[in-house]
Amino acid sequence: MYRNFMTAGAAALLAAAxxxxxxxxxxxxxxxxxxxxxxxVPPIYLTVFAYVxxxxxxxxxYNANVELRQFxxxxxxxxxxxxxxxxLALVPTALTINQVxxxxxxxxxxxxxxxxxxxxxxxxxxxxxxxxxxxxxxGVDTPGGARSLALKDMLVGGCHLTINDVQxxxxxxxxxxxxxxxxxxxxxxxxxxxxxxxxQGKKVKTVINLKDAVPDSHYDLLEVRRDRLxxxxxxxxxxxxxxxxxxxxxxxxxNADTVAQIGTITGESAAISKEALKLFNGIGFWEIHDDGLxxxxxxxxxxxxxxxGNIKEGKKPPTYDHLVDRTVWHDANAMIGGGH
Length: 340
Known about the structure:
By secondary structure, this protein is an alpha/beta fold. The protein folds into 2 domains: 28-115 and 218-336, Periplasmic binding protein-like II (D-Maltodextrin-Binding Protein, domain 2, 3-Layer(aba) Sandwich), CATH 3.40.190; 119-213, Periplasmic binding protein-like II (D-Maltodextrin-Binding Protein, domain 2, 3-Layer(aba) Sandwich), CATH 3.40.190. It is built from 17 helices and 10 strands. It has helices at residues 2-19, 48-55, 58-61, 74-83, 93-103, 130-133, 146-159, 175-180, 193-199, 210-213, 226-231, 233-250, 256-262, 270-282, 295-307, 320-323, 327-336, and strands spanning 33-39, 65-71, 88-92, 107-113, 119-122, 137-140, 167-170, 186-189, 205-209, 220-225. The chain has a 5-stranded mixed beta sheet, with helices on both faces. α5 (93-103) packs across α15, α12 (233-250) packs across α17 and α13 packs across α14. The longest helix is centred in the first third of the chain and has 18 residues, at 2-19. The relative contact order is 0.17.
């Protein structure tokens, strides 16, 4: 009798278990929030992959609870990472190197944008040489910011000048607007700045670009504080998976119109956005095949920062292994399915 009772009870429990729906994965809203700092107010074009991840549902796809927050520059976003106000920021590689070397910042790069698009451009085609730029005002984001660091590298590496040979004009992400308005003739420009300026009837001539001045340059790192990475690692892996999957979506020409429309968040037309997308994809700007943490390039940037004097005397530059963590992208790529 006792055995029969237990058997019936077990059968009932088994039947109830079978009837229950499978346990659903944690919803994005239930996951720890990851705040990502993006450079530019209004947003600059390099950040479009993050807005595609948001608008096209990639964050939701990977159960990532992400807040995108705009900052004036990558330098400002990096300060927010270090202070703990945000979790991740897209930061110029040179700046992260300098922070680690000069201030012993406890940060690490987990994904990279290896191919810089910076150039010094001018709306004065009669004065478009390195010799002409000496003594001129040059539009940058902020002294020590991404455009400023790129300017210094281009002046030293390509023009044999120093940063003191020009006057930096801090303009946030409004260098193109200032050149259109005629406030300045020279500026450190992104690829997408050129069609914006030329659409307004001003021809842009390149003085020098960073790729030629410093062939082994590396553009940006997705920076995180080490303790925050340990605390939110799964959520951060999911965020990186969404960003990389969004970048792969952007690389597919059939999605160009959709991406171009999302790209209007920069304040430019869909036509300009579509042209910019083509230019950026043409240089492989958003890394989709690997983690973007090319050792040769990053070590070249470390050496360059020593050469141009950005690492203070007596301070030791970081090693590559100390500067990056390649495991996050590895796990994110596995989550995507290793598609590329």
